[in-house]
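[Automated response] Your request has been received and processed.

Submitted sequence:
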Amino acid sequence: MEHDMQEKTEQLVDHIMKKCLWQFNSRLWDREKQNENILGKTMQILCKEPVEISTSADKCYWAEAVTLVEAFQKRFLWINTMENSDIKILIKNLKERMDYLTIKGSLNAELTDTQY
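Generated structure:
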């Protein structure tokens, strides 16, 4: 099961890295907020939970999440049969992996440049 979840996580990571421009933001705090909010709202939509869209930023994150959910449900049919508890684990793993790839493990010096 662990290996299966890891494989599914990597499939979603691969999709985001190839298809989603939001992961390329050049400021550390933008990447942190985007990963947290877009992936958080993605999880809520997949689990059919209420999604907060009271601010303009929330609406932008929600729009990205809707696009991501549509792509995930179309490209990765297995996600449509997952239990909510497994979806939450999957998206948590996805966020951790994206945080590593786009923030913690990134060699992009602009992310930490205080003058940028």
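Summary generated for your ticket: The CA atoms of residues 64 and 73 lie 14 Å apart. The longest helix spans residues 84-104.
If you did not submit this request, please reply to this message.
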